[in-house]
Amino acid sequence: MGTVVMYGSVSVDGFIADEHDQPGPLFDWLTSGDVPLDDSGVLRVSKTSFDYVRPYWDRIGATVVGRHVFDLTDGWDGTPPGGVDHVVVVTHRPEPRGWDPGAPFHFVDGVEAAVAAAQELAGERIVEVAAGDVGGQALAAGLVDEVRMDVAPVVLGSGKRYFGSVHAQHLLEDPDEVIRGDRVLHLRYRVRR
Asked: pTM for the full model?
């Protein structure tokens, strides 16, 4: 099975969105560069960020998100973000009425089942787990191998925490990578076992 990576952009004080689910300037680094990150033309980053992020994105086989993120994004109109092959949605509710059953989205009850389904779909490729409540649950369950953070130079003060509602200590190894981009610091840690 591939590596399970918890990933997201985060403020210096540990938030992935404000109290109203708005990222504010957390994603500014994704649109302020001169190198296209994908085919959309919207995401443009520095060369340094491209060299770090694009190879990682290319290795993702499945992404695990919560139903809240799925609903906020309107399911990305049935097209997984960033060119990912599959999205596994952790939810206790059925797929939305009228949802295209051919879209590569899988609705699963529970984080453990979602990560297992994503690993099956991804094979040897990376399983990405979105930061926030679902990512925190996966970390607490011992399912995360690596933590990647794109730290934006902003203090939000309050909001949605990167690690969700994790209340126990979890040790990470020393950073494997620390890369300075424009308006972002890319960090990668392995989870200590």
From this structure: 0.95
